[in-house]
Amino acid sequence: MLSISKKMYGMNIKQIFFQEKNIFPIDSRIDLVGITQSTLPMEGLIPIETLQKDLTKNEEELFNDISKSTKKRIKQVQKNESLQKIILTEPSNQEILLFQNFYNQFAKKKQTHLCSPYHVETLKLLRDQQALIITKIKDVNQSQILCYRVYAVDGKRATPFYSASHYRLTPNTHFRKFVGNVHCLLIWENMIWFKNRGYKIYDSGGLTNNQNIRNFKLKFGGEIITEYSGYLANSLLGRAALHIRKWKLSRKNRGE
C-alpha cells in the first residue's frame, strides 16, 4: 500500500494506492481521501475491473499466456539494435516534465485528459517514496522516444498510471505499426524487469469499456479481478468538494 498527502483548494487530501487493510479511523485533519484500486470494498467506492499477471510464474509461462498475435508483434522488434530500453528508478524533476510534455502531445491528439501540474505533483511525491518507475524506448538512430510507461510501485505490485506513444502523429502506416510493436515490447520487457526484482503482480491499471484498449490489454493474459476506487469525504469541506465533483461529472456526461 502507498499513500501520499497534498493540499488543493484549501483541502488536505490523502491519496491511497492498493489498499489491503482497514484505514479507519482517518486522521481528522484530512478532508478528502482518494482511493486507487483498493482490494477491499467500501461504501462510496466504485468497483472496477483490472487485469493482473502473476509474476511468480516463470518467464516461459508468462510469455505463453500472451496471445499469438501479440507474441508475434514482440518478436518482430525484439532484436532491433536501434531500440534502447530505458528504466528510471529515481526520475528527476526534469525527466518527469519531459514525460509530461510527451504525454500531453499524445493526450491532445487522442482527446483525453492531460497530465496536469496536479498530476505531476503526484508523480513527484511517489518518486520521493521510491514508488515511481518511468520506462521508455528510444530509437537511437532517430534520437526519438517512441513510447513511455509510468508505474506506481510498492515492491509487490506494479501498476501503470500512464502509457503513451506518438504513432498518431503521423499517417505513415509502417511507422505506426512499428511503434505499436515497440509498445508491446516495452510492456513485456517491463513485466520481466519487475519479476526479476521480486514483484508478485503486474497490474493493467484497470480495464475500460473501450473495446480496443480492453482487448489490447487482455491479449497479454492474466486474471480479471475486481477492485475499488473513488473518494471518501472526511469533513464538511470534503463532502462539499464531492458534491461539486459529482455535479461537474453529471454535466459532462450530459454534454453540457
From TrEMBL:
**Stored SUPFAM superfamilies:** Acyl-CoA N-acyltransferases (Nat)
Please indicate which superkingdom the organism of origin belongs to: Bacteria
InterPro entries under this entry? Acyl_CoA_acyltransferase (IPR016181), PG_Glycine_Bridge_Synth (IPR050644)
State the signal peptide span.
none
Q: What is this protein called?
A: BioF2-like acetyltransferase domain-containing protein
Species this chain originates from: Bacillus cereus
